[in-house]
Amino acid sequence: MECGLLFSGGKDSSLAALLLEEFYDVTLVTAHVGVTDDWEHAREAAESLGFAFEAIELDGDVADEAVEVMREDGFPRAGIQQVHEAALEAVAADYDVVADGTRRDDRVPTVSRAVAQSLEDRHGVDYVAPLSGFGRGAVDRLVEENLVVESGPSEAIPKGDYETELRARIRQRWGESVVDEVFPDHEQTRVVGRAGPDA
Questions:
Q1: Which pTM value belongs to this model?
Q2: At CA 39, angle to CA 194 and CA 111, rounded to 5?
């Protein structure tokens, strides 16, 4: 079965791909809104892992609505959630199976049972979240054994995730100070290959 896995180029979605590859014909799919070309970093990560890659462009209104919510809230959670759900919808149009790298302890994005069931019922797809039973510690240990990862501050490690483009959209509309108000400093990861003897 054809599986479209939402892919940022980071460790969670990369580990999800490794877990799914035995069961599905996996394509790593990066959704973007055309603000930057940072999604190319996700393409590079996909190639380094040996997976097919697809970039899909979401309607710009998705990002505009998300950044309005983020600016109003003063933090990114609801806006990132909106974009993630729009990306799931887009992938569901082209694949039998829709997957992502959401973990058990993620704060955002998350996919509730109701959202997953609605996606499946409306599109006739399976929604799969292979990391949904894994906490951060388990993911970190598996990543350390199976992937080669670069890490650093968000702005220093560009990858193909929603945050990069939403930061850029906010910067365009309201300036760097609003980016700093909305997004907390945190570390990002980008996968650059597989680890181990089979790499």
A1: 0.93
A2: 80
